[in-house]
Amino acid sequence: MTHPDFSALDRSGIREAADRIAAYLALISLDAGPGRIDLVCLAGNAVLSCVDHATELARQHDCLLLITGGIGHSTPPLVAALASRLDCAPSTLAGLSEAELLSRLVAADTRLARDRIILETRSTNTGENAAFTRDVLDELDLGPQHVVLVQDPLLQRRTDATFRHVWRDRPARFFSSPPFVPRLGEALTMASWSQERYLTLLLGEVARLHDTPAGYGPRGKGFIGPVDMPDRILVDRDLLQRNLPLQPGR
Asked: Where is the DUF218 domain (predicted)?
């Protein structure tokens, strides 16, 4: 099997461009949030440090933790990562939703009572994460005003934009808190990304956030509202595309 040649990462400026894009995608806005948080919402993904981070936030704020995620793009890498951490065969986790998979790790944390955990198990993409989370909370007659979103750092900004768009008729305020801000060398040891997966996600997320006919914004698919896209990020994207054998990925 032939692997892509990423030797260009050693050239001046290439690695720095990737790190700037990652820092942009890993939106952090909790520092500007209110003192009171009503809900922590963990979106299904394969970065297991998100689970520890979300659980700790829910404990600190003495609030509910909602885990959202059915079976989608992140499910296979999540199963692999979770099987490794729990030292079990991946087959024992087959058929479980991402919310159910992640809840297994949360359940091991005795600092958070099980009756403080809510699962949404049907969503298969970020838009459904937002919509079905709203539906589950409506069914429980819960109307959180201040919600912290925890997601794979590379998906954090789009998750924030998606929830704001889907909930635009609600008074809730959203704050973002990824578990860490990735840097290329360190990130591959902190999460379940391969180098190719990591870099294709960088380019894919910029393409989805950029408000063009091919993106997810108002001029494109309409999944999110307008997102500020700094010129520097577009320059960095172009640099990576010219120098690395990649196509934007999910």
From this structure: 49-169
What residue ranges of the chain have pLDDT lower than 70? 1-3, 32-34, 109-110, 187-192, 247-250
CATH number at residue 138: 3.40.50.620
Give residue 234's domain range.
Answer: 7-25+183-243
Q: What is the mean pLDDT of the chain?
A: 90
Taking the complete model, does pTM exceed 0.85, yes or no? yes
Q: Is residue 250 part of a domain?
A: no
Give the pLDDT confidence of 88-125 residue by residue, as tens digits. 899 999 999 999 999 988 887 667 888 899 999 999 99
